[in-house]
Amino acid sequence: MLVTNQSQTLKEELNTITTLFEQLHAKANEKIALLEKKEKEWKIRQDQIEENIKKCPDKVILNIGGKTFASTKDTLLSKKDSFFYAMLSSGNWLPDQDGTYFIDRDPKYFRYLLNYLRTGERPDLSELSKVKLKELQKEANFYCLDDMFGNDSSLEILAMPSVKSTIISQRKVSIVGDDSSGTYIKTYNLTKLESGTFRWKINIHSFTSWLGIGVVMTDRVEKKIFNDFVTPYKEHGCYMASANCYLWQAANGYSANSFPLKAGDEMMMELSCESQVLTITNTSTNAQLTIPNVSLPAFPCIVTNGKFSIDLEWVA
């Protein structure tokens, strides 16, 4: 009797498991069918987009608020998230009788947008005032080209009260210090260097005593530590080059090298987060210094003693 009951129980459990399996299998098949349907719809849509793009003329004349601009189909399609890609690929945007594509926008800043599409490089906007930059940003937003300004860099400076910063343009900030304490102090730019490749330029206008440029470990910025650059110089957390020809590496203290920097020099900085390598190039002398094994995330940093004046400008 016991064996019979156990057998019956096992059968019921098996039936329950079988039913459950069949239900799960049916749901899985439904999802697979839905995915296949969506894939087919996507393929049809992609084929339609390609067909619409083929129909577009190779040379495109744009009429922006009454002013004409000539470009190519390839240029206008270079950014897939842009207004132009959406319109040209839709098949619904047709030229007027005169062969031009009319857009009812102010043409004042359109050349900046078109050059960005042509080169793929962020334009130099240093000639524009803050008011004009805002106007250009509105136009870039309309055309879905906001990335021409970049969203990976900041001009915000974290520093001691003796250090002042002034934004010069969309990508450039002036930093001036007047510390008379005789100590080494740090100044941070609040761009978190965590992924991708960052490039920035430092123009050294003047410094009276000592200057170091590079990046710093994130904990120094988060804890707002400005004055830990002290003997025996093993806890500074920096990866940088200094004006007295020393290389500074967070865990390894410092070592002498022949890389020079002085007032009047222009320094190009590049940090590849993928390889964790900081490259510093003195464009005035063509000298170059490479610092490997940079601990990430990091922040741009300068260390100074006494008065100084520099500009920091984001390149990419």
UniProtKB/TrEMBL annotation:
Residues 58-121 form the BTB domain. Pfam families: BTB_2 (PF02214). Residues 21-52 form a coiled coil. The keyword RNA-binding does not apply. It comes from the Eukaryota. Keywords: Coiled coil. CDD domains: BTB_POZ_KCTD-like (cd18316). GO terms for biological process: protein homooligomerization. This is Predicted protein.
